[in-house]
Specification:
- The chain is mostly helical.
- It has one domain: Amino acid/polyamine transporter I, CATH 1.20.1740.10.
- The protein is built from 20 helices and two strands.
- A two-stranded antiparallel sheet has the order 1-2.
- Helix 6 runs parallel beside helix 13 and helix 7 packs antiparallel against helix 8.
- The C terminus is likely disordered.
Amino acid sequence: MDAVNEGIVAFNDVFWAYLLIPLLIILSLYFTVRSGAVQFRLLPEMFRAMRGDPGLAADGGKPISAFQAFAVSAAARIGTGNIAGVATAIALGGPGAIFWMWAMALLVGAASFVESTLAQLYKARGKEGYYGGPAYYMEHGLRSKWMGVLFAIIITVTFGLVFTSVQSNTIAAAVSNTVSTATGGDAATWIPYAVGVLLAAVTGVIIFGGGRRVAKTATLLVPFMAGIYLVMGLVVVAMNVGQIPAVLTEIVTHAFGLREIAAGGIGTAIVQGMRRGMFSNEAGLGSAPNAAASAAVSHPVKQGLVQTLGVYFDTLIVCSTTAFIILVSNPTYGAEAGPTLTQNALEANLGPWALHLLTLIILLVAFTSVLGNTFYGEANVGYLTRNPAAMTGFRAVVIVVTFLGAIGSGGVVWTLSDTTMGLMALVNLAALAFLAPIACRLLNDYVKQRKQGKDPVFTKDTMPELTNVECWEQEDVERFRGNTTTV
């Protein structure tokens, strides 16, 4: 198993450093220029776009709103990447990794806007509302069915299976650590099994309730868990406020320092920061568009803006909280990684109770990530086949994988997640490179209506030259007509 893990690590290092990261940077720069730096220019609009009543779905129930779609994507984003992933980036790449994580978030916000706007444009209509994602804009926008099928398979494996294993593995590790601290000895070997059974059972109850139940659970848990974690982080920062200038200096100097350049460490900091940042905020990855497509909004650009805000919330706020918790505690780089590093930093600042509270937070964030990951997987299983048995089978496999992840090897799970995530991003970025001009045309239409004092509304008659657009008929946006006056 060690040999397999080392081989995957070696492949990942070359694949990420020499292909995926350069490609993501180049394309994000292109998206930024082409959109007029939409990720900065329309920041106030991002908050405004989360408002609005989604109306009624075909079955008479409420479709997923802009905020609920944001919560689902946040549920998938705010997981182990924010706590364990940031800690791993610091352990392997030093404090400088945080700078590159920040820089990447600001740049790839444009990629997040493009992919989520396209997902809205090419979404499909279902009984409970809407669904879609990259597979749909690959088939209908690029007219490339094979590409859509390939992406749907990769994301189903990546999020529905591999990332779910990562989340449950992190929960089991965190629980074992807190039990070990409380008892003063090694945690019992049965604990990961018990955690796996409980987690699998609760996950099954929710995911078999359908997309609405997942969205409602995420909407309930995400603000709660993020709020508690951010409060803990603020308390730690306040207790160590005198160290903040030194920590910021450390982050910048390690990102550009001559010592790191001479030792080759700056490359590690860049790669680890960008890689873990992408795992955390998912911009350009092709995952968030699956949630974005489910929102009932009056214009595709609205959800593109909302999902861009999600990148900032995830990386600049939640990930930064983890970074400051760790760095004010003077960690020994390379000695610890994963959730243990964050747990021990909190314990050093706030006492043993904080370690146990963080375990609860990790349980919540990882659990909601499992739900978000399942939502993404279901959207793509639905793309591949309409057979109800296939969806039931997928949900059953998710439950099994949730259990197996809790008792599996953390190293192999994390390594494999990097591989599948990278392959998924590669396919998605290839599609975005060709479809970005369409997203920018939609952006221009949105900005034009806003300058006229309107709440923007889009129908496919607005741009009749865009073919293979299934939704955006008059009936799809009629519910918003009352809101198109000056705002």
